[in-house]
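Handoff note, outgoing to incoming analyst
You'll be picking up this chain. Sequence as last confirmed:
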Amino acid sequence: MENNKISHAGHRKRLKEKARKYGLQSFADHEVLEYLLTYAIPRKNTNDIAHALLDKFDNILNILNAKPHELECIKGIGHEASLFLSSLGQLYDLVREDKDNCVMLKCVGDCVAYFRRHYQVTYTENFYILCLNSTGRLIKTEIISGTCTDLAISKQFFSKTIVNEDIGSCIIIHTHPNGKVEPSAEDITATEIMMNICALLGVVLQDHIIFNEKEHKSLGNGG
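Most recent structure output, in case you need it:
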């Protein structure tokens, strides 16, 4: 048992030395998680936990976006570790929002580049409501999980999101995990509903763009 403690301590030290010398860019995904967890789980081998997290959530972004109770389903993840990982996800969102303050979205290409740089197509269908001012600068991005039918029903959420005197237009992005980017009948109906809501509120719906892991499809004139 004592030898195991020494071995874990030595491994943690090597991870931290590698992080200091080369940065997290030099780490594999499981090593990044293993390294981060050393700050939340003392005196324990975090390698197996890191692999278990990736097996369940697929990638680091999904892990950081998971709810604490979802993370705690993984053996070895307790309240402290789940809160730590969840807080890192929230910190990432805050930093991304700060960067959004200087993002200009003038065309479909800008939107595609923004989405691919900041987000991933995960195993759940997600909606991203990009709110812009009159000059095309991104003011905020709101995210809601669900299908087009869910969003069409949730008119109140959409209305509240775009009600702001600074918002001149918005762009809808949504994902088709493991699916085609061609719009379904539900996608088209949801677009019409959102366009009508925007018109009532004096906001322009610039586009509705569908993404899968490799492709995108604009329902506007951008193709």
